[in-house]
């Protein structure tokens, strides 16, 4: 009863925001995404010129395996590419290499935003709770607005929960939401009768029996980092969460990073895409429509991996099938 009374308002405080405004990237000579913007401008210029559509498809077709959807998200009207004029030194697509286009498409996939809804998160954490030992460190790579990190800190007995997000505006929104939730938590705890403010038992939704220290220590148990997930050391993590539905092109590199850094026994959770690497064994597969709208996988890093790399994988469409869809989409514009 006490858990419901205290936790329900906190869960409610971290909801919403899926349709948040995505501000355009900064266009300046020293902007952090300048290379991405330059290639994006070159691709978009061909997209907006019907006479260039054949050339655009010719340049994109070799990279169909790393394109999320049909036409890349970065070329859609809602993309984060600025609409201001190109910088004078920006090159046309004819001067941009295939390697640069490939790298742009991989980065573009990583910028797409997506998240699980609260009812999906409730089912997810209930399903993985039997595999999670008390204590430990949960890390969400690509944490967006922070909903998964805060839900994990409330629902399971982690010692610490950390979100890693590359986009500054998403990181700031996560911090704002977290501060609001922590303020509400402090107010609720302060209103409890003194006998309840110490070691009162708190039964979490996962079934774990904790004390009120689980909530009193919440500010110390939550952290958000603005960083590239490939540059953050996750070696101490006991669970790494990946909302990887748009990470298809990134999965081989992510798998190798996690295999190299995680300790045996650590858990990794992915959505949509499998973690196909010899360092990991599947513990549970939840088909689409069971925990969430998409499939969810839970893996464990095991100790007898010999250090070999994963076999190269293709996560995308057949180039001919992709081109047929792309031509139809371009014709309908």
TrEMBL record:
It comes from the Bacteria. Gene3D superfamilies: Vaccinia Virus protein VP39. PANTHER family: FI06469P, METHYLTRANSFERASE DOMAIN-CONTAINING PROTEIN. The keyword Amino-acid biosynthesis does not apply. This is Histone methylation protein DOT1-like protein. Residues 112-177 form the DOT1 domain. Keywords: Methyltransferase, S-adenosyl-L-methionine, Transferase. InterPro entries: DOT1_dom, FAM173A/B, SAM-dependent_MTases_sf. Pfam families: DOT1. It comes from Duganella qianjiadongensis.
């Amino acid at each position: 009863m006490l858990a419901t009374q205290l936790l329900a308002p906190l869960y409610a405080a971290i909801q919403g925001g899926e349709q948040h405004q995505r501000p355009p990237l900064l266009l300046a000579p020293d902007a952090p995404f300048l290379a991405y913007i330059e290639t994006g401008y070159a691709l978009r210029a061909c997209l907006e010129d019907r006479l260039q559509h054949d050339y655009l498809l010719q340049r994109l077709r070799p990279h169909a395996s790393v394109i999320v959807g049909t036409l890349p998200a970065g070329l859609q009207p809602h993309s984060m590419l600025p609409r201001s004029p190109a910088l004078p030194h920006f090159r046309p697509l004819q001067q941009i290499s295939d390697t640069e286009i490939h790298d742009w498409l991989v980065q573009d996939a990583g910028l797409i935003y997506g998240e699980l809804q609260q009812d999906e998160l409730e089912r997810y954490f209930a399903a993985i709770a039997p595999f999670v030992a008390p204590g430990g460190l949960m890390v969400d790579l690509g944490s967006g607005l922070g909903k998964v990190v805060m839900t994990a800190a409330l629902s399971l007995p982690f010692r610490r929960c950390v979100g890693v997000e590359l986009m500054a505006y998403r990181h700031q929104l996560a911090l704002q939401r977290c501060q609001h939730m922590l303020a509400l938590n402090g107010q609720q705890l302060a209103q409890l009768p003194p006998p309840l403010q110490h070691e009162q038992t708190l039964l979490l939704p996962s079934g774990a029996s904790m004390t009120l220290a689980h909530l009193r220590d919440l500010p110390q148990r939550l952290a958000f980092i603005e960083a590239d997930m490939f540059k953050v050391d996750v070696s101490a993590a006991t669970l790494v969460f990946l909302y990887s539905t748009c990470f298809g092109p990134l999965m081989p590199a992510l798998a190798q990073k996690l295999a190299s850094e995680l300790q045996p026994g650590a858990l990794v959770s992915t959505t949509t895409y499998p973690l196909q690497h010899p360092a990991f064994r599947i513990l549970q597969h939840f088909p689409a429509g069971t925990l969430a709208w998409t499939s969810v996988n839970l893996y464990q890093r095991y100790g007898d991996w010999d250090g070999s790399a994963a076999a190269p994988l293709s996560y995308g469409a057949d180039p001919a099938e992709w081109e047929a869809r792309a031509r139809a989409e371009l014709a309908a514009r």
